[in-house]
Description:
Layout: H1 2-12, H2 14-32, H3 37-56, H4 58-64, H5 72-88, H6 93-120, H7 126-147, E1 166-168, E2 183-185, E3 188-190, H8 192-209, H9 212-222, H10 224-229, H11 234-260, E4 262-264, H12 272-282, H13 292-316, H14 323-344
Antiparallel strand pairs: 1-4, 2-3
Helix pairs in contact: 2-13, 3-8, 3-11, 3-12, 3-13, 4-9, 4-11, 5-6, 5-7, 5-11, 6-11, 9-11, 12-13, 12-14, 13-14
Amino acid sequence: MEISTKKIISTLGIPRLIIITFMIVLCVMAVFLKLPLNDLLSDTLIRTGMNGVLVLAMVPGILSGIGLNFGLPLGIVCGLVGGLISIEMDLTGYMAFFVAIIVSIPISALVGALYGYLLNRVKGSEMMVATYVGFSAVSLMCIGWLLMPFKAEEVKWPIGEGLRTTIALTGRYDKILDHTFAFDVFGVTIPTGLLLFFFLSCFLMALFLKTKTGMAMKAAGDNPRFAVASGINVDKQRIVGTMISTILGAVGIVVYAQSFGFFQLYTAPLMMGFAAVAAILIGGASARRANMLHVILGTFLFQGLLTISLPVANKIITEGNLSEVLRIIVQNGIILYALTKVSSGGD
């Protein structure tokens, strides 16, 4: 029993155990406060699935040596373009969903290659430059959304030029994964299709990391000098990691949008990279080390804390509507805590 306990502590780390304990306490408090815990847990599972691929996008960036990909909005923008093209083609259902993904992949691959080339030119400052690039891409696309020649009525403004800020996916593929094979367990809805897509993405990433290219990419990120001595082109592998990260960002926003029910353009993608970074760091990753357990555990803990803590706090403090204030405090507090783990290299 003692050996098993030590193994659990070693695997998860003290910070993860504290967060898990805190989440359990929140669940118990929700029961005592007569909050619908089954609904909160259902929402947590949905949020885990809808954000999971975006968090997974951090893994190839970390392992290839570029570090935490704060430039994730680049991939998100590419995914939004793919989604809009799918709507422009007047597709619905699974066809619309998968066409949006398929269209976004070559766009994000090209953008990721150019982004990777840029990061190779600024070695040592990747995360700072990535943040700037991500913010710049979102700002540039605020102009792009006004100029893009989409004609679908649900996409463009009815008067004037440019695209709508929020584009509803009702009648297209709203919650198509959430409802696929969904079932209830003790009142908790399991979004089977959504979680299967997330786990399949993690499985495919794990398989890729075992291929020759995947191992070369990890070697380039782990020890560049040894990789060069072994005949590995480090710069090429960094570009490969950046491309895959950008592609996953594009796929991730399509998955996110189908669950959310809307595409949000203009400044909406600006801070999404920070939440993904926080989730994987809370899961136990660092700026140089990441795996699938970090992705799954981190996404669940991050989304679970946000989902359960806010109703509990609002029930305890009844004066006024504090939900939005608490959401900002809790979310940014988690992000700040997670970012402190970068300098310490995780645990």
